[in-house]
Specification:
By secondary structure, this protein is α/β, with parallel strands linked by helices. It has seven helices and nine strands, in the order E-H-E-E-E-H-E-E-H-E-H-E-H-H-E-H.
């Protein structure tokens, strides 16, 4: 049975450590295929280089907790000292309208989605190797050396956990962007075809 059959649309979760290229892949998928890309809310202050990465709705911690108390998040996580969450209403409305929805979230959030929506299509993005991941984290030029080291250590843990977990349906290496995007599009198309 196709994962798309539980909802009218397919819930697609793109997960992976910092620096692996999730945001770039998500933007390409949104441009090249018929998926709706969601914007997460975060308590993290906006950074100068944010416009080059994932787009966020920046809100206060008080606002975040208020939304949390009203069950307005599909998933949420506390990462690197800030809260992140995916607005539930928008996602569910799009799914029920027959649209496929793409979530670009961290491992904590992905595991929540897997538990609540077992038919979600779960994709974990891997770097070609750890040396390349370290280089990408530095090349982003968004974080200070201490934050880069923290993200690198967390990435190693997340990759190890994901490889030993059954939470993810597919592992995709982002060794070359166009190849990785094509592979993910093929996976999504196969899931859709299974529901016809």
């Amino acid at each position: 049975m196709s994962k798309a059959s539980t909802h009218h649309g397919l819930l697609i979760v793109l997960c992976g450590p910092s620096g692996v290229g999730k945001s770039t892949i998500s933007r390409q998928l949104a441009q090249q295929s018929d998926v709706s890309y969601t914007v997460s809310a975060t308590t993290r202050p906006k950074k100068e280089k944010d416009d080059e990465g994932k787009v966020y709705e920046h809100i206060s911690q008080e606002d975040f907790f208020g939304r949390l108390d009203h069950d307005e998040f599909l998933e949420y996580a506390h990462v690197y000292g800030h809260y992140y969450g995916t607005p539930k209403k928008t996602v569910l409305e799009k799914l029920h309208a027959g649209k496929d929805v793409l979530l670009e979230i961290d491992v904590q959030g992905a595991l929540q989605v897997r538990y609540q929506y077992p038919d979600a299509l779960m994709l974990f993005i891997l770097p070609p190797n750890l040396r390349e991941l370290s280089k990408r984290l530095k090349d982003r030029d968004r974080d200070d050396p201490e934050d880069i080291a923290k993200r690198y250590r967390a990435a190693r843990r997340e990759i190890h956990m994901a490889r030993g977990s059954r939470a993810f349906d597919f592992m995709v290496f982002n060794d070359e962007l166009s190849r990785a995007v094509a592979e993910i599009k093929n996976i999504i198309n196969n899931e859709r075809a299974g529901g016809l």
